[in-house]
Amino acid sequence: MLNLGAGEVILILVVALLVLGPKRLPELARGIGKFMREFRRQTDEVRSVVEREFYRMDQDVTSGLAEPEPQPQSILPVQAPRPPASLMEEASLPTNPGAPGPASASAAVSGPPPGTVKAASNGSPEGA
């Protein structure tokens, strides 16, 4: 692991006892123990999940080789699903119901239709 001998471990423990004191050293040891236990539990859980998934993938691959799935022979175009009718009606409604629509907007424009000559007030056509 770390290639520490017995003398080195004892030296580390004595230094820790001197630095932390006799009251805080057991608390630190308990905390380290809890951390190591939780770490080991989490790594075991991850290891089991990975092994289970590899086993499941292996089973899928081996069963897939034994029984190939038949592929459809004809290729048809794929159509997108149609939205519900209520959504289609809502989309066709004007976004601002108070504003005039295209038909009422053209009626609201005053003046003669395009391409006609406007008559002057004296009765003669303009430009003549």
Tell me about this structure.
With about 130 residues, the chain is an all-alpha fold. It is built from three helices and no strands. The protein has helices spanning about 5-65, 85-90, 100-110. About 0% of the residues are buried.
How is the topology of this model organized?
Blueprint: H1 6-66, H2 85-92, H3 102-108
- Total number of strands: 0
Which residues sit in consecutive blocks of at least 5 with pLDDT less than 50? none
Q: State the share of residues found in helices, binned by percent.
A: 55-70%
Radius of gyration: 43 Å
Output the structural class: mainly alpha
Order of helices and strands: HHH
Give the overall form: elongated
Q: State which percent range the strand residues make up.
A: under 5%
Rounded mean pLDDT is: 75
Query: What is the number of helices?
Result: 3
Distance between the termini: 110 Å
Summarize the main sheet.
Answer: none
In short:
This protein has three helices and no strands. It has helices at 6-66, 85-92, 102-108.
